[in-house]
Amino acid sequence: MGGLRSAEALRAGGFRGSITMLGAEPHLPYDRPPLTKQLLAGAWDEARIQLASAASLDERGIRLELGVPATSFDAATRTVVLEDGRSWHADAVVLATGAEPRWLPGTEGAAGVHVVRTIAQSIALRDALDALGGSGRVVVIGGGFIGSEVGSTAAAKGLAVTILEALEVPLGPVVGDLVGGWITELHRASGIEVRTGVSVAHVHARGPGALPAVQLASGERIEADVIVIGIGVQPATAWLADSGLSIDDGVVTDEALFAADSVAAVGDLARFRWHHAVGTDDVRIEHWEVTAQLASHAAASLLAGRRSASAVSLVPYFWSDQHGRKIQMLGRPAASDETLHVAGSVEEAKFVVVYHRGGRVTGVLGVASPRQVMLCRPHVESGAPIADAASLFA
After folding, report:
1. Can you list the domains of the chain with their CATH numbers?
2. 332: which of 4, 89, 204, 315 lies 20 to 30 Å off by Cα?
3. Which of 229, 320, 287 lies closest to 99 in space, CA to CA?
4. Is the dihedral of CA 148, 154, 156, 162 positive or negative?
5. Whole-prediction pTM
């Protein structure tokens, strides 16, 4: 999506030169959020999550070269080399290779063990779940948003689901203990077993006559029909090792998204300098909406040139669908930020929480409260006093 939106923004900004999109996957650009929800559930097919057709891209003069990974890049000459030996030189390059799922040691390719990041991985997991015929056990390692969404989808198929989480409060560092605790209880109310504060020692693949299994550090062994690993992602930077770029938890860019002259990075790959209302941070943000904003800004930066490009300005936003509830969040509060419950009822799964640091608003989260969340956007963007945000709900 980051690559597609960059190409579209270049055209919309008046660029008339050639544009080529290189992609490791054979698929046309597609939307990733449904991979753990609608596509995994079987409610949508592949065509439903496609972001652009080959014909529409051809009409805009955007050429596609798909199905062959890039293996190296030289930032000085802006040359990309592909796995099949072909090389591409450009006047400007947008790096948008995103991130890759983290596997536990020895689990990659193991029978009965899955991750979800691509269409192929989502379909493979969907087929494995459907093969159980509504009766079977799924163990999800990781209680973050990916693990939670996969668990929710699997439970809706009638499967017995266990979520294993190392933290005492799943998602606590992201949404705070109040909301993290509520999400945990939401899982439990939907029939999911959530075990917190547990450590995984080993994952055993499916073998002849043996189910895949998770062995905890305590020695306990938990068998399952399907195991899903959802312990986060890491930026896909291995192919950039000798590129001449600065790599540090992603491709390091300046405030205008330049990683080098005429080279920009966007999406989950980019670690960029972000000036916001309560300070300046070097961040890498794994949100769909942020990727879209970064792509548009990278195109504008390349068209303006490095000397004239402006600093990226954004308000991070993400959403998650779990057990029929929509969770929305604006801002990027730190784990240590305080929370204030300003509206609604946690028990009724319709509420709003505002995050603040030093008396200033850093974020807002709502469950089934889209209007109230967006009402707080100016306060998040400006870092308004927490009292001002609270007064909206008085």
Report:
1. 2-99+234-304 (3.50.50.60), 103-225 (3.50.50.60), 324-391 (3.30.390.30)
2. 4
3. 287
4. negative
5. 0.94
